[in-house]
Specification:
six-stranded mixed β-sheet; four-stranded mixed β-sheet; 8 helices
Length: 325
């Protein structure tokens, strides 16, 4: 362990010595909606610890210089030797998170007393550990303890996120719990790409999904982002700006309200798309400083997610009491 720590410190010092510091972040008050810049760093699971940590640091440096708000590394990206939190891997990543004032999801094999977990560590902009997520559904043969903590949500300065890991893709209750906890983005560090199920979860729960297996970033509509929306500054790095203010609204009880909002705020917000089969509107801000969510409150318009959550609560309560809806 001591040699591993020395090696990791050496890697960090060597690879960061000549790097320039990050430019001042863009003033987001001058942008429409609520933008957050994400990076999926799909450099693969496992491998030689020092080599993979060095590669990860190079990717994080590139992401940091690009003004990324949060970067995510793959599942157990630096190999399968367990270490504590904090430890050599999280310390090296934390130094870059602090340098570039960005969040980083750093998945490792965690040594916690006598137990080992597949753990994603959330490091904040100051380089501190802001939280951890232990994989709930450990894959056969990993030799690790499944989490007893369950799904968590983490509040950041740009919004609320959740983290699920690899084999968790097969268990819909985890994705629904992420929705119930209010996640706006679910990061999914993995050893593979995931594909169609991730698209289904994104559209069903109306959050973005950032897979970190093959970098197929997924919109709240369930569609992978277009290639024109994704930058690839390094092989295996996928960077995109997501607007957390884009709002899906059900047409139920809202048609006149939405029509009025769009009319009275023409040039500030627009109907991005009308989903006729689903009976949904997708509304976004187009003027800097304007937010759809704020306007929806003024016009007493619920988001689709809030509408579904409220409906669940009230209908379940009616079921218990025998009241009619």
């Amino acid at each position: 362990m001591l040699s591993l720590m020395r090696s990791s410190v050496f890697v960090l010092l060597v690879t960061t010595a000549a790097w320039p510091t990050r430019a001042e972040p863009q003033d987001k008050s001058r942008l429409p909606g609520r933008p957050v810049k994400v990076a999926a760093i799909a450099i693969g699971c496992g491998g030689d610890h020092d080599a993979k940590l060095k590669l990860a640091c190079e990717h994080l440096e590139t992401a940091g210089k690009a003004g990324v708000d949060i970067a995510c590394l793959p599942e157990e990206f630096a190999g399968f030797n367990a270490e504590p939190i904090p430890g050599p891997t999280t310390n090296a990543v934390a130094a870059l998170a602090k340098k570039h004032r960005m969040y980083v999801v750093c998945p490792i094999r965690e040594q916690a007393g006598t137990e080992q977990f597949n753990t994603a560590v959330l490091v904040d902009r100051s380089g501190k550990v802001a939280g951890t997520y232990r994989k709930v559904f450990v894959f056969w043969g990993e030799g690790l303890v499944p989490s007893r903590e369950g799904v968590k949500a983490f509040d950041t300065d740009f919004g609320r996120i959740a983290i699920l890991t690899c084999f968790d893709i097969n268990f819909p209750e985890l994705w629904q719990q992420s929705d119930r906890l209010g996640a706006e983005i679910v990061f999914w560090p993995s050893a593979y790409g995931g594909g169609i199920p991730l698209c289904a979860y994104a559209v069903l729960h109306h959050y973005y999904v950032v897979p970190v297996g093959s970098g197929n970033l997924i919109d709240i509509t369930g569609k992978p982002l277009e290639s024109s929306q994704v930058q690839k500054p390094l092989p295996g790095q996928f960077v995109a700006t997501l607007d957390l203010d884009r709002t899906l609204i059900h047409t139920n009880f809202n048609e006149k309200k939405v029509e009025k909002l769009l009319k009275e705020h023409s040039g500030e917000v627009e109907l991005e798309k009308s989903f006729s089969t689903e009976a949904w509107y997708l509304v976004r801000a187009v003027k800097p400083g304007v937010r759809v969510r704020d306007l929806c409150k003024q016009y007493q318009i619920e988001s689709l997610r809030d509408y579904c959550h409220r409906s669940r609560r009230q209908i379940d309560e009616a079921r218990k009491t025998g009241k009619r809806i």
